[in-house]
Amino acid sequence: MRRPLLPVVVDAGPPAGFDGKLTPGEALRDRFARSIRYLRVSVTDRCNFACTYCVPDDGVEHKRKAELCTFEELERIVAVFADLGVRRLRLTGGEPTVRAGFVELVARLRRVPGIGEVVMTTNGHRLAELAGPLAAAGLAGANVSIDTLDPTRFAELTSGGDLARVVDGIDAASAAGLAIKLNAVALAGVNEHELAALCEFAWQRGLVMRFIEHMPLSSGDLYSARRELSASTIRAAVSEVFGLLEPSPVDRGIAGPARYWRLAARPEREFGIISAMTEHFCAACNRVRLTADGQLHACLGHDDAVSLRDVVRNGGRDDDLRRAIAWSVQGKREGHEFQRSGEGAPTKHMIAMGG
Questions:
Q1: DSSP letters along 110-139, please?
Q2: Which DSSP string corresponds to 23-62?
Q3: Are β-strands 28-29 and 245-247 bridged in parallel, bridged antiparallel, or unpaired?
Q4: Which whole-number Å values give the CA distances from 40 to 24, 187, 262, 337, 355, in the listed order?
Q5: How many domains does the chain have?
Q6: 194 in a domain, yes or no?
Q7: How many helices (H) and strands (E) does the chain have?
C-alpha cells in the first residue's frame, strides 16, 4: 500500500488525533473555526528596491532559480487550494513583476477553476509598462506601495526608487481598469507628518490609502518600537486635518486584514489601517502564505512551514498536497504574538513573504 507523503518541513503540527484527510470541495477550516479563502503567493524573493524596513543592511540570501516553484508547480498547488475552497489569490514578492514571464503566470493562475480573483502587491516600478498586459491577462487589481510623497525621502527609503515613475504606474494601472489601493508603512520620524497628504493623494485619484503598522520580522533586527505609529495615532493624524471619522460600513475584512474608516463629512473618502501591533485582527484571519520556494506559512508571525514544493517534487499526488495543506492549516496558531521588544520575532524576512 502506498503511504501518503508527510509534510517535508513542519515545526508546529495540528492537534492530536488529526488524520490529515481533507476531500476536494471541503472548506479549509482551522481549529479556531477560521475559514481559509485567501492565498498569498510570493513568486520571487528578489526586488528592484531595498526598502529599509524590509531588507536587512547586509541583504538577504536569495533562493537559486532551481529552488523556486516553476509555473507548472504553482499552477498545480493553486488548483488544489481552489479545490479546497480558496477563491482569492494575491501575488507578491519580493517584487512580483521582476520574475520573468509574470504576465503569463497571471494568465495561467486566473484560468485555474475556482479562482475568482487574482490581484498583486507591487512597488509600482514596472507598472506603467505592465498595467495593460496584466489587465488583459486577468489581473483584477494591485496594491501599490508608496510610503512618502517626497522624492528624496522615497529614494532613501527604497534605496534608489523613483517616485515619479511609481506615480505614473499608479495612474496607468487605474486607466487600465485595475482596482488600485495604495499602501504605506507608517513610521514615526519618517512619514508621520505625511499621513493626511497621502490620503489626499489617494482620494484625488479616487483610490483608498492604507497604512500598515511596522512589524518585527527578520528576527526583530529591523524593528524598533520607537518607530511605531499605532492605529489610533494614525486615525488622530487624519482626523486632525480632515475632521470626524467613522468606521466604514463596508466589511472588507473578508478579503484581507485592513480595517477601514471614512470621513464623516465625506463618506466617499476612505482609508484603511493594517494594525498588526496595536489592534490585532488574528481572530478574523482567512489567509495563508506560500513562499517562492513553496513553503506554506499559516501565519506571518511564526516560522512554521510545510514544503508543498517538496511534496510535488517527491512525486506526491493531489491527495498528498491536500494532506500537507490541511496539516499546516490545522497547525495555524491563534495569533502572531509579535512583541514590541522584537524578541521572539520570526527569522523570515518581509522581502521573502510579501507581507
A1: HTSTT--EEEEEE-STTHHHHHHHHHHHT-
A2: -TTPPEE-TTS-EE-EEEEE--S--S---TTTS-TT---P
A3: unpaired
A4: 20, 25, 27, 21, 9
A5: 1
A6: yes
A7: 10, 14
Contact of 288 with 319, CB cutoff 8 Å = no
Other C-beta atoms lying within 10 Å of the C-beta of residue 162: 16
C-alpha cell at 234: 494614525
Q: Name the CA radius of gyration of the chain, rounded.
A: 20
CB atoms near residue 224 (< 10 Å)? 16
**Residue that has been written with the C-alpha cell 531595498 in this structure:** 50
Mapped to the 3 state alphabet, what secondary structure does 266-322 carry? CCCCEEEEECCCCCCCHHHCCEEEECCCCEEECCCCCCCCEEHHHHHHCCCCHHHHH
Region 282-308 average pLDDT: 89
Provide the residue range defining the domain that includes 54: 28-353
User: In this model, does residue 342 exceed pLDDT 70?
Assistant: no
Q: Are 353 and 42 in contact (CB under 8 A)?
A: yes
Which CATH number belongs to the domain containing residue 107 in this structure?
3.20.20.70
Strands 117-122 and 141-145: parallel
Q: Is residue 336 part of a domain?
A: yes
Q: What is the pLDDT of residues 202-217, one digit of tens each?
A: 999 999 999 998 877 6
